[in-house]
């Protein structure tokens, strides 16, 4: 196989709790992750010349070793002594630096795809072990679906799927580094812990309302204080009929859970009228595992 086209799916965090801080600055977390059907297209092509070539539709992204997709390819090329080169084309649709694991899912797709193309014989666990050296969200992006993530995000337990719903993804035009957001929490304290067990119980029962009512993200409060527009986006979504709305990961993306596509679309239109949000997408959850 000389060419492979993959979908690199984004994620939202239905729950994100911090249990402690490690000496290296990383945090022990307890998160409920959910894949959404908003994806980047990652195309891998073997080249005769050695090396790694990256191209992308977003001119501001790095195409050198600072791109996490490059790092993923480099890791496998070195470890397995792969002589052929690889061309990676990233057609980006997942908002960048948004708390949706865009880069992590690109890296996951490269690991998964190169394992196949070059017959490396790595198991899913082998891919996850390499993935976590690139970023805490990468192992989850290899696994996908509805998942409990613990440790720094790499200890993964599959959960019953989130019941069918529509997810409105809204990315306001501001950016916050994940590292800075975690550091702010270190200074200000975690505050109240979200009800992760409530989310798990809701998933067990297939009760979407209970899952939505139990959603919580410990990283949200500091971002709400710094960027009041996030509160406005949540209010607009809830006013438009969302079961609940919350920031994903380290933000600034806010997502809302809806039971009808029509309501989600109307909420997106309202957001574009009433807030600075220009990037708003209505999508489904995606529970298909990789084959
Ligand atoms: C916010 C989340 O996206 C929620 O899913 C993840 O926790 C972050 O995952 P990620 O972006 O893949 O994380 P990495 O690229 O490994 O780390 C970025 C920065 O986030 C902080 N970080 C990340 C994960 C974790 N469990 N504790 C942390 O403190 C660290 O300061 C690190 O320097
Ligand atoms: N393939 C890539 N796609 C997107 N961003 C990338 C990529 N490679 C490197 N980056 C850089 O990484 C930074 C974070 O991008 P990314 O979209 O992965 O963040 P994120 O959505 O916050 O991810 P996470 O939820 O895992 O924290 C950006 O500033 C970008 O310049």
Automatic annotation (TrEMBL):
Alphabetized PANTHER family for the sequence: 4-DIPHOSPHOCYTIDYL-2-C-METHYL-D-ERYTHRITOL KINASE, CHLOROPLASTIC
Binding site for ATP: 95-105
Domain GHMP kinase C-terminal: 200-274
InterPro entries: GHMP_kinase_C_dom, GHMP_kinase_C_sf, GHMP_kinase_N_dom, IspE, Ribosomal_Su5_D2-typ_SF, Ribsml_uS5_D2-typ_fold_subgr
Gene transcribed to yield this protein: ispE
Keyword Transferase carried by entry: yes
Keyword Transferase: yes
Active site per database record: 11, 137
Function: Catalyzes the phosphorylation of the position 2 hydroxy group of 4-diphosphocytidyl-2C-methyl-D-erythritol.
Pathway(s) this gene product operates in, as recorded in its UniProt entry: Isoprenoid biosynthesis; isopentenyl diphosphate biosynthesis via DXP pathway; isopentenyl diphosphate from 1-deoxy-D-xylulose 5-phosphate: step 3/6
Gene Ontology biological-process annotations: isopentenyl diphosphate biosynthetic process, methylerythritol 4-phosphate pathway; terpenoid biosynthetic process
Protein family membership: Belongs to the GHMP kinase family. IspE subfamily.
Lineage, top ranks: Bacteria, Bacillati, Bacillota, Clostridia, Lachnospirales
Species annotation: Lachnoclostridium phocaeense
GO molecular function: 4-(cytidine 5'-diphospho)-2-C-methyl-D-erythritol kinase activity; ATP binding
Keywords from the named record: ATP-binding, Isoprene biosynthesis, Kinase, Nucleotide-binding, Transferase
Highest taxon above the source species: Bacteria
Sequence ranges assigned to domain GHMP kinase N-terminal in this UniProt record: 67-145
EC number: 2.7.1.148
Name of the protein described by the UniProt record: 4-diphosphocytidyl-2-C-methyl-D-erythritol kinase
Catalytic activity: 4-CDP-2-C-methyl-D-erythritol + ATP = 4-CDP-2-C-methyl-D-erythritol 2-phosphate + ADP + H(+)
């Amino acid at each position: 196989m000389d060419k492979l086209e993959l979908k690199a799916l984004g994620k939202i965090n239905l729950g994100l709790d911090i249990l402690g801080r490690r000496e290296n600055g990383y945090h022990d977390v307890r998160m409920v992750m959910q894949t959404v059907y908003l994806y980047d297209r990652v195309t891998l092509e073997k080249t005769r010349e050695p090396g790694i070539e990256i191209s992308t539709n977003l001119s501001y992204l790095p195409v050198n070793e600072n791109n996490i997709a490059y790092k993923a390819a480099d890791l496998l090329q070195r470890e397995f002594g792969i002589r052929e080169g690889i061309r990676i084309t990233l057609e980006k649709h997942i908002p960048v630096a948004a708390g949706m694991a865009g880069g992590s899912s690109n890296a996951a797709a490269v690991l998964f795809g190169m394992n196949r193309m070059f017959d490396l014989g790595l198991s899913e666990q082998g891919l996850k072990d390499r993935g976590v050296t690139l970023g805490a969200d990468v192992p989850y992006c290899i696994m996908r679906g509805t998942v409990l993530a613990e440790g720094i995000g790499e200890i993964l337990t599959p959960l019953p799927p989130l019941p069918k719903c529509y997810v409105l993804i809204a990315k306001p035009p501001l950016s916050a580094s994940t590292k800075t957001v975690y550091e702010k929490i270190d200074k200000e304290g975690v505050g109240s812990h979200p009800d992760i067990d409530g989310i798990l119980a809701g998933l067990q029962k297939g009760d979407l309302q209970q899952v939505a009512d139990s959603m919580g993200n410990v990283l949200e409060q500091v971002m709400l204080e710094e960027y009041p527009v996030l509160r406005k986006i949540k209010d607009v979504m809830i006013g438009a009929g969302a079961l609940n709305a919350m920031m994903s990961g380290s933000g600034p993306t806010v997502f809302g859970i809806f039971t009808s596509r029509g309501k989600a679309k109307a909420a997106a239109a309202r957001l574009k009228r009433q807030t600075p949000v220009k990037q708003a997408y209505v999508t489904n959850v995606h529970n298909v595992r990789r084959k």
